[in-house]
Amino acid sequence: MSSHTENDDISLSDLSATHRDLLWVLSQTGPSESRPLHHALSDYYTDGIDKDRVCDTLEELVERDLVTKQTHDTTEYRLTESARRVLSARQAWQAGTHNAAGGHE
What digits encode the pLDDT tens for the residues 28-63? Predict the structure, then answer.
């Protein structure tokens, strides 16, 4: 279990750009191992990104209950329902369908 229990209160604005970018990539690719996620961010970031940083960021997202980690022969990461809600709220905000207080206009 995670130490973070206020998932409904979390917002993408509470996360670093790397956290947000990893959530976005996972939302586009579906379940993935860390290597393809690292590759996707390396392609996006002009200065690249260290593989250890990607792995550390994934672990932080697991601790926040935004990503689950399943290990069999390989380790696979996938979004939780909380992460889907956070991403959906961000997309609504970007589209202008939520006001600054978080409610619908």
Answer: 999 999 999 999 999 999 998 999 999 999 999 999
Which residue type is seen at 29? T
> Which pTM does this prediction carry?
0.80
- Tell me how far CA of residue 87 lies from CA of 21, 26, 81, in angstroms: 11, 11, 10
CA angle 26, 35, 50 (to 5 degrees): 100
- The span from the CA of 102 to the CA of 57, in Å, is 26
Task: Extract the tokens encoding 37.
Answer: 């996620």
Sorted by where each starts, the structural domains of the chain and their CATH numbers stand as 14-91 (1.10.10.10)
In the chain the first and final C-alpha atoms are separated, in Å, by 36
For 28-61, letters b (16+ CB in 10 Å) and e give eeeebebeebbebbeeeeeeebeeeebbebbebb
